[in-house]
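PROTOCOL LOG
Step 1. Enter all chains and additional molecules of the complex.
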Amino acid sequence: MRKGFALAALLAGLSGQFPISHATGWNMPVGVSQVSRDVYDLHMIIFWICVVIGVVVFGVMFYSLFRYRRSKGAKAAEFHEHTTVEVVWTAIPFLILVAMAIPATATLKNMYDASEADYDVMITGHQWRWQYDYMGEDVTLFSNMSTPKAQIAGTEEKGEHYLLEVDEPLVLPVDRKIRLLTTSADVIHSWWVPDLAVKKDAIPGFVNESWTRIDEPGIYRGQCTELCGKDHGFMPVVVHAMEQEQFDAWLAERKQAAAAEAGGVDREWGLEELVERGEKVYATVCASCHQAEGQGLPPTFPALAGNQALMDDLDRHIDVVVNGVSGSAMASFSGTLSPVDIAAVVTFERNAWGNETGDVVQPADIQALIAP
Amino acid sequence: MAPQSPPKATLEHSQSASGSATADGFQEEHHYRSGPLRWLLTTNHKEIGSLYLIFSLAMFMIGGAMALVIRLELFQPGLQMIQPEFFNQMTTMHGLIMVFGAVMPGFVGLANWMIPLQIGAPDMALPRLNNFSFWLLPIAFTLLLSTLLMPGGGPNFGWTFYAPLSTTYAPPSTTFFIFALHMAGISSILGAINIIATILNLRAPGMRLMDMTLFVWTWLITAFLLIAVMPVLAGVITMMLLDINFGTSFFNAAGGGDPVLFQHLFWFFGHPEVYIMILPAFGIVSVIIPTFARKRLFGYASMVYATAAIAILSFLVWAHHMFAVGLPLVAELFFMYTTLLIAVPTGVKVFNWITTLFRGEITFETPMLFALAFVVLFTIGGFSGLMLAIAPADFQYHDTYFVVAHFHYVLVPGAVFSIMAAVYYWLPKWTGHYPDERLGRWHFWLSVIGVNLLFFPMHFAGLAGMPRRIPDYALQFADFNMASSIGGFLFGFSQLLFIWVVVKCVRGGVKAPANAWDGATDLEWTVPSPAPLHTFETPPDLRDFKFH
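Step 2. Run joint prediction.
Step 3. Record the structure below.
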């Protein structure tokens, strides 16, 4: 610990010298919920217990190292065992641990009680974005990182919330108990917002449960914390907490937009508008694996540009996007993209990067395929 | 290492006396064989020990070079040097190589050299098996490293290789990774069997179990842990193999499988594995501190019992690595309590070391410096471990740099420092020369400053919210990472000094007597330095020997 404090002082000195200094702190955030405050308190209690033990133990150690050195004429004593001492230093740590376990148990029990929630949100992890379903409200969001590639490559100055900003944050009301159900569509992810002290793995085939009640309106940022492949470092979590009235207005607006979206399925779509829409869908959903120019990352992620086998077989192309490819990284998108988006992205892929098939896929056909 | 003794009482010779075809002449030729075949075919515990140690050092440098690639990329925010795909391969390979290639073989090398010398045995009980266990390793790790050149790259799913990222979503080279890990696992199991057979059967007459050094004791317990858990690892990677190549669905949810099962199996292996990498370190420190404090180890019996207690508890704590997977409350509480319990025997060990120092007659040669740094820095790693055990708080720490700081504190200034302490301590016995004390001190101080600058800021980065295994990070973590990277390079390049000290010591230096350290009392210090190729061909007479 001594070394630790010396080092902390050294680091404090260092951090003043470097230009990039956006440090929000050196410690766990206290957070904005009762649970996060309880967790912070536990963290500080156990930390100070460790500090006290450290001071005593290292104190005796360094005292011995200075006092009993041969160069100062020390002569070794003979003693080498003492049963009472052993019993004492077995029993005392045990009692400290019991004392520590009691508040930890209480907090944990509280964290596990997700009953009587006001809202349920299903959180689904995808490589590499989050999907939020407001259960019973027919509102679904996809949350992608919105930091421009140029900032990551260093050709553009990095913004204040570099890597921690998204196009669609999870919007939640304050002072309401929100049940968070986590699952995954592909590999294991983990949904973490430090200010809420909620971290739960999103596991394919499982639905995990946690909850939060946010006290203050604000924007709270976190990240995926389970290695989930190439872009694990680029799937932030952003929660936007607002007052109930604002939240209600937001939700109503979203419901309307969703209804309007569903209406587009029935009409006949033209090539131009599908390609335009498909390009956007491709950029947010497909490009992380199949790459911006459709060149892919073989052998794991096949190329789409110049993929003759795929271009010759429209039905297979649609089938792959709708149903995924079993035993590979290609997920099924029938549940995550709307029929319009699927039709648009397939049309885009068949008419981009030199794939000049001229094919136009109608949303109605996709709709028929998904829900016949 | 000139052979000096007549080839009489080795184990193989006692077998030949009972009718085996092995002739004395063959033995002679075998031991004097020159060139690479000598090393390929050797069955001598000292030569195999050296092979293990050289292999371990080579892997330490390769794994360390990968760590430096990681630290270079993380020096500043943004992607400058490498792409995320390669970054993930570096973190994965760094972990695998350091755990299975550097730390474990390092301890096995020390066991090979020192267990027979500390128990008065002529060799390991199963010399040919010993040769096989070693030579599996270079093959396994050549194969593992070659995956980096395969299409799709090497393993990129972290050293914990959680399914389904490591199965359905893995690069095609994963099958080779499984094969390599199988070989390393077989090597470990065979090595463990050999160590148990040696300790239980070949102790010199008159040496009871409770007369053995702590190094031998901790290795005996470690070997049992290895035999218990390596087959579990073999099982889990075989299930992966079947999922990838034979269409099963052990870990594939879409086929009715269970990704969480993977984690239970992995950590049932993985947690005892953590103690496999630290118990021998406890043993090393427990022989070095009494030597340089010139005082018997305080609480020998309680040290043995504490080691056994830690080993038993290590089977009951695995799910503390999985607090965030959604375990039921009862399981969460159970694993929190058992994990907290581990602090009790671990604390006993630290208290015993410090009481050994108390009222001793202390000097600070290089091995002692490393051993003392071990006690301090391992304890800091223990404190963060205690914090991680508190399940509600673990939701905040889990999979952040706080965890990275924690396990690097117990593994680098913990396990790795203990291996370095052991090398400095026993080099006089191995080479007949003292290592250069001045260079050794330089190596120590550079390492200890580097390692703290490298790992201490990671605590802060983790608490401030930086997840592990990310190639790029938000701006508030920039200062911590820059400090870590500077520390990383300082620590990494300091190890070149270590290699130089070892090479220099092998080539020459101040001649060491049989008992190289005036406070040393264990049995290995009764044989000449350098230890002849064959020692204790007739068991030593221990009637007047003062144990530990």
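Step 4. Note key features.
The domain at 25-67+81-113 of chain A is CATH 1.10.287 (Helix Hairpins).
Chain A touches chain B through 116 residues (CB under 8 Å).
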